[in-house]
UniProtKB/TrEMBL annotation, chain A:
GO terms for molecular function: ATP binding; ATP hydrolysis activity. The keyword Glycosyltransferase does not apply. It comes from Thioclava atlantica. SMART domains: AAA. This is ABC transporter ATP-binding protein. GO terms for cellular component: plasma membrane.
TrEMBL record, chain B:
GO terms for molecular function: branched-chain amino acid transmembrane transporter activity. InterPro entries: ABC_transp_permease (IPR001851), ABC_transptr_urea_perm_UrtC (IPR017778), LivM-like (IPR043428). One of its GO terms (cellular component) is plasma membrane. This is Branched-chain amino acid ABC transporter permease. Keywords: Cell membrane, Membrane, Transmembrane, Transmembrane helix. The keyword Transmembrane applies. It is a multi-pass membrane protein. NCBIfam families: urea_trans_UrtC. Its main location: membrane. It comes from the Bacteria.
Length: 248, 394
């Protein structure tokens, strides 16, 4: 099996406080990995470090064998990392279709994009994603006017259009209704296999729906890693979650 | 309504909007180019030519403010640079520059500022006067009118956007810069004629033809240039790069995470916008026959932003028409003394009103109107279709 994402001893020191502290894990190609952890465990910060938003102070990150540690965000993205934010982040003044068209970045350079039309394969990809996310009826809608669920699906759709090889999802179901959560699980399950996915999630019903392997973080460190059944019964995990009411 | 229907309707809406958009461009260009057929007073044509130049500035502002989200409060810098570069060449072509007792042209003010006994020659009459030497070729001044703004804008924007400076800080930096350059120009009196600017210029001459500013041909040069810039700008914002630029305006972080080098897009469009402003400066000098440090007054740069806001900063043609309209109204109103006094107050009030209640300006109103007409058409279309279907069923 090929390692898609190799994180080795990753650390960030915010003036003495290590939000992520010597974190190490390997995510294989095509794997869907769930990251659990109580509030403030460092999950979002971990994604910031992988995607280049925050510079790490020690350790490194490799993507398919290539070192991407502390490169600028757009370079890391071009290597194949896509990211969904905790707060949905789409282009709010553009239409849904335009959002997807921007994401279909065959070539990101300015001069290469001085043309009116997208390449054929980019356009085909946009159509596929419209089908997958069922955004067809709202293509002409300004993204800022979408429902919360639709906005999240649009953001997911943009990551697929972008052809990200490794996708980081930070709480993709936060604030969703039951039906919306279910639909999101469907989309993520469809993405499985063709993408390597790293998901931070609190909703345990959702985690059971999608999870294969789980990594538990606590105070910036890796606490446990393994399949769902083992994690749920792990005494260390139970103890870490005591303060925040346990895994629910 | 089924999914299929909705998407066909939205397709029809988009086609209609695009058609309406092109119709407005075509109409505007037809009016601008056809105006001399109606107006035969060359003084008015000359006046309007100047307002068309301001319309070009509106396009430059809309491109950076509306499409890139970069509020440049120092656009006058690029306009001024374009104007001075052009005026330097035209100054050397004026009759007086040839009558200063040298066989080569020397601007009259350089003699007034010269040390006693200095040689009457651009090489050494004043400290720095050698900078004028290449401007003896008219094409050099015209080329520099665009190249210098491009270079200055490129250097400026590379430094600020690579450092991820944004929003109000960009506005402050550009504002400070235009003030600084204005002071430098005033200070360099011996080679710029300071406060007085460059006056008494020659005419633009292309293959022997002299463009007297009060000639219909000169009007056509300005109107034609505006049309070309408008269409090129329109093409630019319709390209994929234009769409990506708008995405960087909405959410630069998201754009970065899609692999775009946001700074590269900002630098490119900021620089193009400066080039357009420089070209406007060139045309202004051709039509108005002077260049002055007042082009770099803060008030002028802020006026440009007001024009674009009123016309609609998210629309190139809206901002362009806004600039032309406001200047035409201002000129007409200024002929009465009371209005002249009240004008600043009126325009200030209009600006505040637009910012608060009409963020898309006149172009926004036009767009809403088109959308309403289209909705009515679609509704009627659906009704006919439903009626037909009902009849078939019956
Ligand atoms: N730039 C920063 N400077 C200082 N401290 C920070 C910074 N960013 C994050 N932190 C701290 O790091 C810790 C981890 O935060 P993080 O957002 O990664 O947690 P999380 O696991 O995503 O939590 P949640 O489940 O609430 O989203 C928190 O205590 C937070 O306050
Ligand atoms: Mg978080």
């Amino acid at each position: 099996m090929t390692a898609a994402l190799t994180i080795d001893g990753l650390t960030v020191d915010f003036g003495g406080f290590k939000a992520v502290d010597g974190f190490t894990t390997v995510v294989n190609e095509g794997e869907l990995r769930v990251i659990l952890g109580p509030n403030g465990a460092g999950k979002t910060t971990l994604m910031d470090l992988i995607s280049g938003k925050t510079a790490s102070t020690a350790g490194d990150v490799h993507l398919f064998g290539e070192n991407i540690t502390n490169r600028p965000e757009h370079i890391i993205s071009r290597h194949g990392v896509g990211r969904k934010f905790q707060i949905p982040s789409v282009f709010r003044d553009l239409t849904v279709r335009q959002n997807l068209e921007v994401a279909a970045s065959g070539d990101p350079g300015v001069f290469r994009n001085l043309r009116l039309h997208m390449a054929g394969e980019d356009r085909a990809r946009v159509e596929d994603v419209i089908e997958l996310t069922r955004l067809g009826p709202v293509l002409g809608t300004i993204a800022g006017e979408l429902s919360h669920g639709q906005m999240q699906w649009l953001e997911l759709g943009m990551l697929i259009t972008q052809q990200a090889k490794v996708i980081l999802l930070d709480e993709p179901t936060a604030g969703m209704t039951g039906a919306e959560t279910f639909r999101t699980a469907e989309i993520i399950n469809e993405m499985k296999g063709s993408h390597t996915i790293l998901v931070v999630e609190h909703d345990m019903a959702f985690v059971r729906e999608i999870a294969e392997r789980i990594t538990v973080m606590h105070m910036g460190k890796l606490l446990a890693e393994g399949p769902m059944e083992r994690i749920e019964t792990d005494p260390k995990v139970r103890e870490a979650y005591l303060g925040s009411g346990g895994i629910h | 309504m089924t999914v299929q229907e909705t998407s066909t309707n939205s397709g029809a809406v988009r086609r209609f909007e695009r058609a309406a958009d092109w119709a407005i461009y075509a109409l505007f260009i037809a009016i601008v180019l056809g105006l001399p057929l109606v107006v035969d007073d060359v003084f008015w044509l000359n006046r309007i030519a100047k307002y068309l130049v301001f319309g070009m500035l509106g396009i430059a502002i809309a491109l950076s403010w509306g499409y890139a989200g970069i509020l440049n409060l120092g656009q006058g810098l690029f306009f001024g640079l374009g104007a001075y570069m052009t005026a330097m060449s035209l100054k050397l072509m004026s009759a007086t520059s040839l009558q200063q007792g040298s066989d080569k042209p020397v601007p009259d003010f350089m003699l007034w500022n010269a040390e006693p006994g200095a040689v009457t020659d651009l090489c050494c009459i004043n400290k720095g006067s050698f900078l004028w030497i290449p401007f003896q070729a008219q094409w050099f001044g015209l080329a520099m009118a665009i190249v210098v703004p491009l270079i200055v804008a490129f250097i400026l924007s590379s430094s600020i956007f690579r450092l991820r400076v944004s929003g109000v800080y960009v506005a402050i930096i550009t504002l400070a810069l235009v003030l600084l350059v204005r002071l430098l120009i005033i200070d360099a009196q011996p080679i710029t004629n300071g406060f007085n600017g460059l006056t008494d210029l020659g005419w633009l001459t292309i293959s022997g033809f002299e463009f007297d500013p009060y000639m219909v041909e000169t009007y056509y040069v300005v109107a034609g240039s505006l049309s070309v810039v408008l269409l090129l700008g329109r093409w630019l914002v319709s390209t994929r790069a234009g769409l990506i630029l708008q995405s960087t305006r909405d959410d630069p972080t998201r754009a970065r995470y899609l692999g775009y080098d946001v700074a590269a897009y900002q630098i490119f469009f900021f620089t193009i916008s400066a080039g357009i402003a420089g070209f406007a400066g060139l045309l202004y000098v051709v039509a108005a026959e002077f260049a002055s440090p007042s082009f770099m007054d803060i008030g002028f740069s802020i006026s440009m932003v007001v024009w674009a806001a009123v016309g609609g900063r998210n629309s190139l043609i809206g901002a362009c028409i806004g600039a032309i309209l406001i200047n035409t109204v201002e000129a007409t109103a200024s002929e009465t003394e009371i209005f002249k006094e009240a004008w600043k107050l009126i325009i200030g009030g209009v600006f505040i009103f637009v910012v608060l209640y009409m963020p898309n300006g006149l172009a926004g109103i036009a767009r809403d109107l088109v959308a309403r007409i289209q909705r009515k058409r679609v509704d009627e279309g659906t009704q006919t279709a439903t009626a037909a279907a009902n009849r078939r069923q019956a």
